[in-house]
Amino acid sequence: MNTLDLTPLYRSTVGFDRFASVLNTAFQNETRPAGYPPYDIEVRDENEYAVTIAAAGFEQDELDIQVEKSVLTVRGKKSTNSAGKGERQYLYQGIATRAFERKFNLADHVQVTDADFNNGLLTVNLVREIPEAMKPKTISINSAKVLQHKSQGAKAKAA
After folding, report:
1. Are 22 and 72 in contact, with CB atoms under 8 Å apart?
2. CA angle 79, 84, 85 (to 5 degrees)
3. What is the per-residue pLDDT for 120?
4. Strands 63-68 and 48-54, bridge-based pairing
5. Can you spell out the DSSP letters for 60-97?
6. Where are the domains of the chain?
């Protein structure tokens, strides 16, 4: 297992505690074959995203979407009922229907809004909702004259 030394990064950053675990998870996942099923990650707007997974051959009830601890997990597993439909005999079967699990690490404040399944494509819609307390705010700068005036007023009250 490859690990990455992030010590230099921590010297100049604050609050990126999850960053190391996200990177380590990414490096671990790279050792597994990442070809099935294919997927797209799309930026739709400044704070809107979509993950689209090609789930050809699956029914909607054979797909499972979960979010836990900022990790989006999409699973697909063929049910035994669908496999027995008419006992098909294939000369060639190019549409893969093996079970799969895909995991996506979500940034802070990214939430899953909904999911659509259409024409064999599962689309999971995401939105980043930054809390009001975390949005940028303007801080006024007090001038030296105002500070001097306030300190003189405090001295006069104290006397």
Report:
1. no
2. 105
3. 93
4. unpaired
5. GGGEEEEEETTEEEEEE---HHHHTSTT---S---S--
6. 1-32, 36-134
Distance from C-alpha of 74 to C-alpha of 66, rounded to nearest angstrom = 7
Q: What CATH number does domain 36-134 carry, 3.30.499.10, 3.40.50.720, 1.10.10.10, 2.60.40.790? A: 2.60.40.790
User: How far apart are alpha carbons 134 and 20 in whole angstroms?
Assistant: 22
Rounded to two decimals, what is the model's pTM? 0.64
Q: Give the tokens for residue 73.
A: 């997990």
**pLDDT tens-digit map of 89-145:** 889 988 888 899 999 999 888 999 999 999 999 999 999 988 888 778 888 898 766
Task: Provide the Cα torsion 43, 48, 51, 56; round to 10°.
Answer: -100
Beta bridge partners of 73: 66, 103
**Which region, left, alpha or beta, applies to residue 20 given φ > 0 means left and ψ of -120 to 50 means alpha?**
alpha
Other C-beta atoms lying within 10 Å of the C-beta of residue 72 = 18
